[in-house]
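G., the chain you wanted modeled:
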Amino acid sequence: MDDLVKFLVARIMDDNHAYAYVADTVGGEALLDSHLPMLDLTEQLAYDYKAMATSDPRSAGLAYALRVLAQSYAEHPAYLQEWRP
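Predicted structure as tokens:
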């Protein structure tokens, strides 16, 4: 699961850089307003999972949620099919 979390955080960082580029070059404020909060929340879930003890009863549900969210990057060459929920 650690690999999935690292993958997901890396994709979020890539997306943040891409959105910043779009905003700077073509004025994509509407795109930023709608997508950046979701990226931030997904990143927060990833960090919460990393900080959570495996004995925490919420960890299984959070792991499932991260697998679902990571599916949006399923076409990325580093995505592993074993991460599918």
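The chain has one domain: 2-83.

Shout if anything looks off.
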